[in-house]
Amino acid sequence: METMNGRLDRRAFLRGGAAMAAAMTGATFVESAAAEPLADDPWSLVPGTTVPAYGVPSRFEKNVARTLSNPQGEPRTQHGRTPHHLLQGTITPNGLHFVISHAGDPDIDPDKHRLVIHGLVKRPLVFTLDALARYPMVSRVTFVECGGNSAPLFSKAPIQASVQALHGLVSCAEWTGVRLSTLLEETGIDPKAKWLIAEGADAPALSRSVPMTKAMDDAMIALYQNGERLMPGNGYPMRLLLPGWEGNMNVKWLRRIKLVEAPAMSYYEARTYAPILPSGQAYQFYFLQEVKSFITQPSPGLALKGPGFYEISGVAYSANGRISKVMVSTDGGQRWGQAALQAPVLSKAFTRFRMAWNWNGGPAILQSRAWDEAGNAQPTRAQIVAQRGETKAVPPVTAFPSQHYNGITSWAIDGKGEVTHVYA
Amino acid sequence: METMNGRLDRRAFLRGGAAMAAAMTGATFVESAAAEPLADDPWSLVPGTTVPAYGVPSRFEKNVARTLSNPQGEPRTQHGRTPHHLLQGTITPNGLHFVISHAGDPDIDPDKHRLVIHGLVKRPLVFTLDALARYPMVSRVTFVECGGNSAPLFSKAPIQASVQALHGLVSCAEWTGVRLSTLLEETGIDPKAKWLIAEGADAPALSRSVPMTKAMDDAMIALYQNGERLMPGNGYPMRLLLPGWEGNMNVKWLRRIKLVEAPAMSYYEARTYAPILPSGQAYQFYFLQEVKSFITQPSPGLALKGPGFYEISGVAYSANGRISKVMVSTDGGQRWGQAALQAPVLSKAFTRFRMAWNWNGGPAILQSRAWDEAGNAQPTRAQIVAQRGETKAVPPVTAFPSQHYNGITSWAIDGKGEVTHVYA
């Protein structure tokens, strides 16, 4: 059952426990139970804490937190990154969903907030939250990813940082709200409308242009995130949700949708998301967060504790639909084995992949590579760099290219079990 | 397109927005946009709040909270109930997952906590959290429901309370952990073992007997809840998860699994979950939380604001697999229409159902009824009461029967739009 370099293939999982048990025979990380009775721990001998009206994690989990780029809220952008190495499954809990906020999170009174839809419509309308609550709703699990997520991987030398620092600007949640197309059928659409401008109620009035094709496809006015109202940092009380598209376009604190003939060339589409390619052309109006994966366990900071069995696990996702396959290598891409995909595999959502691995204690390089149902393969880092260029700066990354990195990530493991970021 | 009493059937949803828009033409709950420019709200004119390391809901959502039966933590059971009428979708956010705690939530140090598996095994073993982290994991979305959820509906007269008070002891999350069968293959199983006793590390050392068939089927040692470690009230750092089975058996703060020949007849299985039926026999060792549904919107406390379009929405679930169909009535069960089911429809998980409704402003009685893929139909209240009896007490409900109510719930709407709980 063991394959190259200790990798245990997907069939071991599909066959179930017997195969796994065989692989773990002689596992040194489990203690035999002693014959004496089980001792009581101190917390079993006293009453516990009172159940709160709103639950929060244990005090022992205080390091499971977003890392903040601007913890004092100085007048510049704030990033809060998701600690993927400390999470499991596919849902990002609301407290840990990534946030990018350009002037802090506005403190919006939902009873006073309004959404206006106007411009090239037949009947401009203003929607209160109460009015939106009466429309048919839809729910879908989908990821949101910042276009700048993984930007450190454009640097010439691999930056030593955790998966949180490198890939923490993507998260996945169940969102519920009203389809934008439902509201646009209420307003009517002037056939001249080809784009819409979505504007937020944050201080910079962040605005982005969105093609009407996406608006009429799967765009949603999201009101709920994993069952409860949106978090303040994720757009409370409403945001535009464009499944699979660049995070910045999923305008938070949404207050206006204006239908127009041509894009507005707003700040983010004219500057931040218009990097110059090696060819000299601007890479503008690319919207999809294309097929990508990364390994979350093991990863830097999670050292292996001696040889033997481990599970290699991570997330894969694509704006082009479902993940069809994830391959994992433990030898830097020479040989690959197919990972198990956790069901259900949903379109434009995190898919958790898992691969059993029997580490022999020697050096290894872990990689994952994903494919989507549209036939797209996650590129190697070399392929991405050939297309987009490479930054010269080692952090902070200030130079282009810095957007839409979806290449392979490599984790090296040394003989002591330490994990580092490498290019391989 | 309109059917009996304003119900709009599932086909209206499947046809999409055009049909809905037709139903909403002339909606009086949307304002026309004025010609003048959009005014800036005060929160758009100042910097917002700093992004926190762990996000919490907006201060305007403070009433979206669990209701507590014992908020001072007196020495008796504490219940925290999920506010289903204020939630949407299928995932219950971790802060709002229901909790029942018999002596508060123990403050467990995860580095010191141990899980022992012993009894009729070949090799008794002790597992640390670090050791469990090395085993293959699985994720699944599943509901957990207290056997006593919905007990107020056994009372002779309908109790006027919210859906949170009546049905708030069920929630649904994505759980990740290690299959119990994986660990039992490590310990080996003596063929004489037919049951296991699961014991928690809370002060009462809550214990329940579980058949080995469930242990080897889909039982999990759950470590993560919606991506992050379990909440303290939901069993941190580990719990037994028995998808679809009575909540109390999903032993929280799990510290021991002992394989045995026969059930232990512990407190909960000998007393609480052994009610006497009208036939005089004890109703004991019934484990499944059978097919059930209830409407969350509209529901008591969420008054309708004038005639016109509303979405009727709720959750359905079954321990016997996927929900196959949900029917909704607006006239107290005389006529039924098929609700739309939100995809993906997962086994033993919440399924959100939705039905468009054009309220004519007159009296109505809303009901939902679910079927599962095993062919089970949610019973009427009359059917349940005929089998199990009816309590004489109006709250507090102290008399049997009080367990495993899965009958239909009815909400009456009067001419003013007020919603009350009725038997119909």
In words, what does this structure look like?
- The structure is a homodimer of 424-residue chains.
- The first copy, chain A, is α+β, with helices and mostly antiparallel strands and 424 residues long.
- Among the domains of chain A are: 115-272, Oxidoreductase, molybdopterin-binding domain (Sulfite Oxidase, Chain A, domain 2, Alpha-Beta Complex), CATH 3.90.420.10; 292-422, Sandwich (Immunoglobulin-like), CATH 2.60.40.650.
- Chain A is 12% helix and 29% strand.
- Chain A has helices at residues 10-15, 17-24, 129-132, 163-167, 180-187, 212-216, 267-272, 381-388, and strands at 7-8, 31-32, 67-68, 78-81, 99-101, 115-119, 125-127, 138-145, 170-179, 195-200, 207-211, 220-225, 228-229, 239-241, 254-260, 292-297, 308-317, 323-329, 337-338, 340-341, 351-359, 364-372, 410-413, 419-422.
- In chain A, strands 1, 16, 17, 20 and 21 form a 5-stranded antiparallel β-sheet that branches. The first copy, chain A, has a 5-stranded mixed β-sheet with strand order 7-6-15-10-11. In chain A, strands 8, 9, 12, 13 and 14 form a 5-stranded antiparallel β-sheet that branches.
- In chain A, a hairpin with a 5-residue loop joins strand 6 (115-119) and strand 7 (125-127).
- Chain A is globular, with a radius of gyration of 23 Å.
- Residues 11-22 of chain A have low confidence and may be disordered.
- At the A-B interface, helix 2, strand 2, strand 3, strand 4 and strand 6 of A face helix 2, strand 2, strand 3, strand 4 and strand 6 of B.
